Amino acid sequence: MSRIGVFVCHCGENIGRTVDCAAVAEALKDHPGVAHSEDYKYMCSDPGQALVKKAIEEHNLTGVVVAACSPHMHEKTFRRACDQAGLNKFMCEMANIREHCSWIHEDREDATAKAIDIGRTIIEKVKHNRPLEVIKIPVTKRAMVIGGGIAGIQAALDIADGGHEVVLVEKEASIGGHMSQLSETFPTLDCSQCILTPRMVEAYQHPNIKLHTWSEIEKVDGYIGNFEVTVRKKARSVDLDLCNGCGDCWAVCPSKRIPSEFDAGLSNRTAIYVPFPQAVPNQPVLDRENCTLFKGRAKGLKKDACGKCKDACLKNAIDYDTEDEFVVEEVGAIVVATGYKLYDVGREQPEGLKGYGEYGYGEDPDIIDGLQFERIASASGPTGGEILRPSDGKEPKTVVFVHCVGSRDIDKGMAYCSKICCMYNAKHAMLYKHKVHDGRAVAFYMDIRANGKGYDEFSRRAIEEDHAEYVRGRVSRIFRDGDKLKVWGFDTLNDEQVIIDADMVVLATAIRPNDGVKELAQKLSCSVDVDGFINEAHPKLRPVETNTAGVFLAGACQAPRDIPDAVAMASATGAKVLSLFSTDELEREPAVAVVDERTCIGCMRCALVCPYGAIEQREICTVDGQVCGHTAYVNPGVCQGCGTCQAVCLSNSIDLQTFTDEQVYSEINALCMWE
Amino acid sequence: MTGPAIAPAYAGVDELRRVARELLESGEVRVIIGWEDARRGARPVFITDPAEADKLIFDTRCVHNLVTYLDPRRDHVSELGRIGLVVKGCDAKAVAGLLRESQLSRDHVVLIGMRCGGVLEEGELPEPLALTPENVAPRCYGCDNREPTLTDHLLGEPQPEPPRPVMTIDERVAALDDLPLEERWAFWTEQFSKCVRCYACRQVCPLCICERCIVEKTQPLWIESAAHPRGNFSWNLTRAIHLAGRCVDCGECERFCPVGIPLSLLNRKLQQIVHDRYGYTASDDPENAAPIGDYRLDDQQEFIK
What we know:
With 675 residues, chain A is α/β, with parallel strands linked by helices.
């Protein structure tokens, strides 16, 4: 027979004002199975908790019901008190008569009656509670960072500096990401490469950081503290241990007209190449799709059509027969920092988007996007930092910058604001004016969103000191007219049409999640939002966590981010990972699903619907060790207690500990029985 | 008065007997489960002796879905050893269902598929009758799997389409759907009030595979076990919903029901819903994922508000 103690809290006036707490305690005293019932002004206070502990000892209680606030608020407090008094803490439950009752009702009599009902349901539940133990999971104190842009580098450095090993995985041949392509950075106009490359080198040389470039995530198994990630190291054809990056190979490569990804297509590279001179590692990769030898092999030529780079390599580092390798890394936490790509706004749109055909992007070489302008303005770029337009290499005297191309446009692009464009457009206008003193910079904008430290001052400076002309309005069409680009726009502040004869147009195209993010999110059991960015666990309170425990987010994979944001997020993930690594074992509430092996038939529907990949098939054996069948098994380290498996189990063989069928059924019955 | 004509002899029967004999002789299987001709008509038969392979028949009376013998609960069958099972197209879908739900190892069974032109509604007849709109099993009309693909041997000659029954199941479902809510309620109340809770529907179903059926769970007791209208509703609806997206429309539950509850109407309605919402129809391809575990971006989810 249960001996349950009921403790009704007034919460000062919070509950007491609307609920007659003494009457509640009195009414519940006679409920079957209740051995003790009392009320007190502040049950969570030290004397209040002492009442609970004293009652447990005096009445030898088997369960405790605290009728007070939400379990979110004080369940931990009272469970700790029970623990101290020697009662298994999972025998203690909260009956929420504050948020669910006193705060939302006015009539004292009705509220009191409801509080009694709530108390009864929880008493009936506690009768079916079982003593449980917290779940302990060992932690592998090693982290993986996916993506080697500024966010990934920062996260890796923070974790590595904290004394733990980090595996940094980058899909390109070099780390650095988009930041390495930028010329100067807002709002200080310091050179992007000058602040980034030392970080790249630091990450490369850090004794705690293991770098996999030219690699992608193939598979993710396991759970928080115990992930097993299979990394596909794409065939590089260059042995990184032998190669000294001398450059003899790419000097002799005959395929020289491949558009450079790093220069956003504004210059060419060879088939064997390093993406840029400051690359880390500064060793080449062979692009098999564009290599004469591999193109020949693909056609089925018996003899290799080329082989010049291998001949030129004095270190013997080039091997055409390497294949993709798979490396399994055991890590305890994963930071996702896969970054962004720009919305390619040309006429052709593979993904069902509409594009901006009327802007002529991709059709006229002088209509470029923001990253292409970065390359033109960069000292390491194809023009050596001189502002020259791509078509004929002339200095453009009028440049039009168009904001919000694809951002904040539900009809043709994305509903969201890409966040960084207002600032980089101001920066572009300034950089242009600093280099072309007699030039004219015209920016078409919707609103100027400059909400960061020093941001508004910066964009004001572009207008007031560098005399960029800001026109509030949209551009309807851009087309070639002889030597000029006609930009048709509308100035909504002056209510008039504007036509500008431009030499070059820069489109601030929307930020989109990088290619392959959706697939990666799937491997990590994370969800993506409608725009394809990975969802954070809570937009305000858990912004760098995901719904998969142990997987964290940094930078533009979560939403458009500028550099300060991305770095701040990265350091936040660093702190999260380091705090995770500060213990040897993780403790988890036992609110997890358990399978009744006696009745489970192993149909594995539960595994199909589990959003966390927590369920696996397990063989069951007879007493003499013969395999006699299989059942489902829920890994308590991975299960998040959502209950989906329970809902699809045809034979009701899965129960959620702390919310078992029996407990919930008893709660419902309690409401019906004591009307 | 002349009764319906006798169906012409099924051309694949000799082949069926030969294959069965060879499978038993070579030891490839220990038992062949098929149909035989008995005093009251066709009935299931277990053959372990190659000499008895000639007992096997296949004709319009072979209504039974023998896949129910593969149910892992029936370990007295699996203990016999590797099974050779004779299946129609609808039966093969049930095999796929068991494979999909990890209840069967494909190696454990050799499937002998029969090209099928439909079966009678009732198999307890001394002679195989030719199919007519009056006697054909309504579910055979519009069957999409008359030549099963999930088989090791596919026997018989291509068969003609079964005739259109007097009233198809879809027409009966539509007629019921057209009734006002109260009349539909009254219809099912009357039907379910007949239920004696013998669970024959469950026992015969090849996909009712639970070790302990939810109706037998007593703590808590979700479904009242007395044959009372309230528990009867719970039971019959739970049975149907547990088969949503799984039912292969073999019609055995309805055929076995001793009180004649038209369970195929419930089953068909759920098949229609699953098809309309998830584009899924039960097939005999075990790789064809059932909708419960197959998340697609274009799944309708207007119920999430």
